[in-house]
Task: structure prediction
Amino acid sequence: MHKKIIDIIYESIGAANPVDLSPGEQVLDFIHIQDVVDFYKALIKQAATVPHNSTFQLGTGKGSTIKQLAATIEEASGGKTKINWGGKAYRPSDVMYAVADTELAKAVLNWSSNVSLDQGVKIF
Result:
């Protein structure tokens, strides 16, 4: 199982040596698991009224770079990350921008995320 970027960043705080990562400019939409659970609860509760073949993009609708994520984790943890930004090149498969369009979830389910990135890393 591959570690996720949040795990890697947190683990870098106590690392003896810096962790090599890409330059960290990818813009991603980080959603807290509690928001995912709340989305599915809303979807199940309103399943009968959801238009057939609806495709929901699950996220917050707000993007953060991986570098911004690391800074947010530093602030929340009080620790200093040990990351060598640019120590690895971007891979051809790296997604450089992935931010959810949450309008359909708002319109159909009256749902939006409630846990901000700042809050989420504090309860990680």
About this structure: The domain at 5-115 is CATH 3.40.50.720 (Rossmann fold). The longest strand covers residues 19-21. The longest helix spans residues 33-45.
